[in-house]
Amino acid sequence: MAGDTAKPFELDQEKYDAEDSVKIICLGDSAVGKSKLMERFLLDGFRPQQLSTYALTLYKHTATVDGRTVLVDFWDTAGQERFQSMHASYYHKAHACIMVFDVQRKVTYRNLGTWYAELREFRPEIPCVLVANKIDGGALPASGARADIKMTQKSFSFAKKFSLPLYFVSAADGTNVVKLFNDAIRLAVSYKQNSRDFMDEVLQELENFDLEPEDEEDRPDQEQEQRGHPESPAPS
Ligand SMILES: Nc1nc2c(ncn2[C@@H]2O[C@H](COP(=O)(O)OP(=O)(O)OP(=O)(O)O)[C@@H](O)[C@H]2O)c(=O)[nH]1
Ligand SMILES: [Mg+2]
Q: 3-class secondary structure for 111-166?
């Protein structure tokens, strides 16, 4: 149900293998508005004052994509430095990523490179959408607003460089939030249906990999015996 949350240790990531379940992660610096965007989409509300996300919040949502019901887990984590560099399990089995910066703070745009590099280290192939939040200019001092927004409009380069769709949104007034999330869900579902991440393949291979009790090369005598086995078909 929309807005339900769960504690991280209750998580069973095997469920993301099921067809009707996708995992979408959210990345970005602290206070860019990741949690507010979730609130806006899932609860259709915005509470201006709230503590920074502690370590992990999981939001559950049910969506309909092409007539099918899809269970969506949104993973939200704190962007604070003390939590930076996520644990691998945050990325594990994720099907899409929403990466957020704050149009009012350049540093959050500059840090996208670090977030993106870490994402690609763990999930080289999943769809990622880039989000420019706070376009309402709400918390800006009147004089600073224009300059910063101009700066951000010049900064499409990150999205272009990595071919990421870019959304200009506001969690405060709701601009583009529903579109952003619906598109992200669609991308996650289509990624899950159509492609297998290279890392998934590797992990699957490793899971299936049985060590031979002994390597043939360690048993030259037996190899000899087998080669000269009496039941081997004789060359005609
Ligand atoms: N004006 C304006 N303020 C916003 C918007 N979205 C978030 N904020 C404010 O930005 C601050 C941080 O928002 P959060 O959603 O807690 O940020 P976060 O990215 O989840 O931060 P961490 O959990 O620390 O990583 C809050 O004071 C919000 O009220 C927005 O669209 N416009
Ligand atoms: Mg948060």
A: CHHHHHHHHHHHCCCCCEEEEEECCCCCCCCCCCHHHHHHHHHHCCHHHHHCCCCE
